[in-house]
Amino acid sequence: MNGTETLRSVELFRDLDDATMAELATHTERRRLARGDVIFSENDEPHELFVVVSGRVAMVNRSIDGRESVVALMEPGDLFGEMPMFDGLPRSTDARVLEQSEVLAIPYEPVKTLYAERPRLLWRVVELLAHRVRQMDGVLADSVFLDVTGRTAKRLLEIAGDSDDFSLPVTQEELAGIVGASRERVNKAIASFIKLGWIEQRDRRYHILKRDQLELRSR
Description:
The chain is 43% helix and 24% strand. It is α+β, with helices and mostly antiparallel strands. α6 crosses α8.
């Protein structure tokens, strides 16, 4: 997939005509990344946004004592790193690569020029930000209304998607960060699902046996 095709897959740029899309693509840069690479860190001075072409990238916040919370998982087609383009503030999270990945880096300046010349396109930005707010509302609601076991069930279902067979794209520590609990408590929740016969586990691969029970537990 070339730069133009990648941009066309991103909701933020979907209203661009072919000529504008091709022009924006000339400013992009593809970067291949290995697991553990840090694309940017919290409080870094920002100057570009990114699109995930392949792989997964975690948006991570750290507490003062070093604990991590994974606030979002970015997968192919997802856009990240765009917020400082609008508020002028430093990075608010780390962006860490979870598996071998490829991203498309897009400098802020040509995008800002585009919006200055065609402000109608900013409606796509409003849609993107509204979607992000809804996502954060969901995360906040989960933290209030679901216990660790419920949040673990929900995150496993999100990772599995429509398939009953899946592997964890993250370590146990990273999964705990996504759930928002200690690794021990998340492992205990998974062990309870196995004991109940809801899932099977072999190494980092899982098979869902009773999806309906997991779904009930995640509500």
